[in-house]
Predict the 3D structure of the following.
Amino acid sequence: MNEKNIVGELAADFVKDGMVVGLGTGSTVYFTLMKLGALVEAGLSIQGIPTSVQTAELAKKLQIPLASMDEVKKIDIAIDGADEFDSNLNLIKGGGGALVREKIVAKAAEKFIVVADPSKMVKTLGAFPLPVEVVPFGAVQTENYIRELQGKTKLRQTNGMPFQTDNGNFIIDCSFPSIIKPQELESILNNIPGVVDNGLFVGMADMVITIDPGHKPVLLEREKQ
Ligand SMILES: O=C(CO)[C@H](O)[C@H](O)COP(=O)(O)O
């Protein structure tokens, strides 16, 4: 089993009968979904809240019952991947372009569990370019404002066209030298007109599930404030 497979499956152990479960996006949480699909087939009863069209399609194939955010009173647990995590369990997310829905679901969840292979662990966030979702209207101007924050920016493209999120927006990937104050940068970016949200998830993760070089599971928990 590869690292993503191990950590992805481990997270499914936290899902109990009757729970409403936020279903993240990406190649690690894919393995959580596969495991949940097998558990549902064996009789587990859950409702999933998908964070992307891609995840909704996979969950439907696996016959995991789905609901929308507005149909549920609460989300018991959300499980998602990350592009980077630090020792405070702050994250960069959005490599797959689903950061807005992922943040909405993570925020609403009573417990937010991140599944990440050890390559995602960093001392300081920022080696992975920070995804920022912007509305298409005035995107060039929005990008200019972001650049004023000393970040290098790149409009994400697929096949020569701007990548479009499930919300119909664009993504600007931003390289900052290193992100010493993630909370500050998160709110500065979100104050720029045209920015919908960015991939900094600060103080949100309750647990990161990763593994050590010997492939033993490591569960990192956030200290209670
Ligand atoms: O934030 C995300 C998608 O928007 C993903 O969770 C993140 O990119 C990690 O993906 P993977 O597990 O494929 O490495």
Summary: Helices lie at 3-12, 29-41, 53-61, 99-108, 139-147, 182-190. The pocket of ribulose-5-phosphate is lined by residues 24-28, 80-83, 93-99, 102 (CB under 6 Å).
